[in-house]
Write a structure and sequence with these properties.
By secondary structure, the chain is an alpha/beta fold. It has one domain: Alpha-Beta Complex (Spore Coat Polysaccharide Biosynthesis Protein SpsA, Chain A), CATH 3.90.550.10. Helices cover 35% and strands 24% of the residues. The chain has four helices and four strands, in the order βαβαβαβα. It has a four-stranded parallel β-sheet, with helices on both faces. β2, α2 and β3 form a beta-alpha-beta unit. The longest helix is centred in the middle third of the chain and has 14 residues. It starts with a strand and ends in a 6-residue tail after the last helix. The mean pLDDT is 95. InterPro entries: Glyco_trans_14.
């Protein structure tokens, strides 16, 4: 079972890199970086070079509770749905943290396969 982790990010590249590294091969990672924020070519490459990162974009300005966040989310969904093996989409931001380990996360979705949350 493949999961797509959709990350809306804007400020902490190192945290995003460490977060992405916590996910294994059962995850595809899609990142939208706020267009208003700096993302250097070096930073972009450091994300794109991680093995399970499938997309890094910086298309829309994202402001809290704005249509920009909706557009960024839809872009991430569009990119994730290009992969026919993705069963679940999980939307997070660069301010979120995993509270359980990845194996616990995966077991939950195996147990509840086909259910939406």
């Amino acid at each position: 079972m493949k999961h797509a982790i959709l990350i809306i990010a804007y400020h902490n590249i190192e945290y995003v890199r460490q977060l992405v590294k916590r996910f294994d091969d059962d995850f595809r990672i899609f990142i939208h970086w706020d267009r208003k924020s700096v993302l250097t070519q070096e930073d972009r490459y450091s994300l794109e070079s991680l093995p399970n990162v499938c997309y890094v974009g910086q298309v829309f300005p994202v402001c809290w509770a704005s249509y920009g966040i909706v557009r960024a989310t839809l872009r991430l969904c569009e990119e994730a749905l290009k992969y026919g093996d993705v069963e679940y989409l999980h939307l997070i931001s660069d301010a979120d943290a995993l509270t359980k380990d990845v194996d616990t996360f995966k077991r939950f979705f195996v147990k509840n396969r086909g259910r939406n949350f």
